[in-house]
Design brief:
The complex is a heterodimer of chains A (about 80) and B (about 375). Chain A has one helix at about 55-65; strands at about 5-15, 15-20, 25-30, 40-45, 50. Chain A is of the alpha+beta class. Chain A is elongated, with a radius of gyration of 15 Å. Chain B starts with 9 loop residues before the first helix and ends with a helix. The relative contact order of chain B is 0.16. At the A-B interface, strand 1, strand 4, strand 5 and helix 1 of A face helix 1, helix 6, helix 7, helix 9 and helix 11 of B.
Chain lengths: ~80, ~375
Amino acid sequence: MCLALPAEILSIDGETATVDLDGARMPVSLAFLEGVAPGDFVVVHVGYALTRIEPEEARRQLSLMREGTAPGMAEGVTG
Amino acid sequence: MKYVDEFRDPDTARILADAISGEVEPGRPYSFMEFCGGHTHALCRFGLEDLLPSSITMIHGPGCPVCVLPVGRLDMAIALVLEHPEVILCTYGDLMRVPGTGGQTLRTAKSRGGDVRMVYSPVQAVELAQKHPDREVVMFAIGFETTTPPTAAAIKAAEARGLSNFSVFCNHVLTPAAIDAIMTTGSGATGARLDGFVGPGNVSTIIGAEAYDEASEKWNKPIVISGFEPNDLLQSILMLVRQVNRGEARVENAFARAVRPGGNEAAQRLCAEVFILRNSFEWRGLGTIPGSALRLASGHERFDAERRFAMDYVSRPDHKACACASILRGEKAPRDCKVFGTACTPESPLGSCMVSPEGACSAYYLYGRHRDSAARRVAAE
């Protein structure tokens, strides 16, 4: 119900995108997202794209994980 | 799949699990609630609790929209579709088998002639309304902040298309209000240990990481927003342990690839236009919570199915053997329920937590956690 999955935008026609969701092509509304383009990944929920996945943040998180640490920890930030 | 597989890498999982084991202080118990049912399922599916030190206990939270919908609201939907032959009731598939009063479900209502249709998006309900101008199409809208903007967009689409035969049975609920309820009446208030929250991932894409600042400060608890892959969860748990050890209580965002500090502002604006806070709303397990749910705002009241069909809410009890209410409050685990896996199974559920793919009972049943938990208890003794 609240589940959402990352999907790649294949093409955009007005406010509707065609996405590849784990091999399935489906239409998704971009009513809440601006500035996305084919090749971007978005989080899809009940036919709507909720947010764009930021590749740079994903890369950063993965590299911290592989060091067994987390955002804010490697830098010793204490908030 | 990109953004999925790389967050499931087993070597990285071991590194994170070792980091958690290295970080926990000897003799100190840690108890965290994962708010989302999606997180509960990931914990069970990937066996993550077995990677954690025995001093860490995960408590399953109420973040499952189907689970928290009280029996009385389901009864309203069943009565609507049975009493109004002109109605096509559109619902997400998860709701079809949730038992209402007397074991009635939307599925049994359909077999008795009610026109119940499963949809995966509220847009499909709008399209049905356009296709059947002689019928009344009602969207059975449930969900936390993740699902609210799509409902709002469907209402705007119906408005733009001039449809007068579309309405919404609105049951949208709010996450921060539920966190407050956990702290005032749930496991946070009953003397049980609760050291912090794994914060919702999808909800936060809409409301933003900053939406939890108030709760974190008010209850003095760390909240770490997490993605849904196994290594996301391990990393978030590591961050919670670290905050607890340092005596900190703040919001951290471990799902920054999808969650911005302010969330999705376009979606928030749309919801603010279409919906308004209800004075109060009953939740299964958490009781009646003030300001915890939404209804149609003035200007959009004509899309309110409760007004259109004069639907009245009557509070109804759960099945008397069902422990969903205590499980949703974080007071019990599914294995503590005496009908779990015997009288109550996914094929013939007595309560919502066994039906929903985000329910804690469904997770325990699907991934065999009841057996593992018993073995772990024996081993610990």
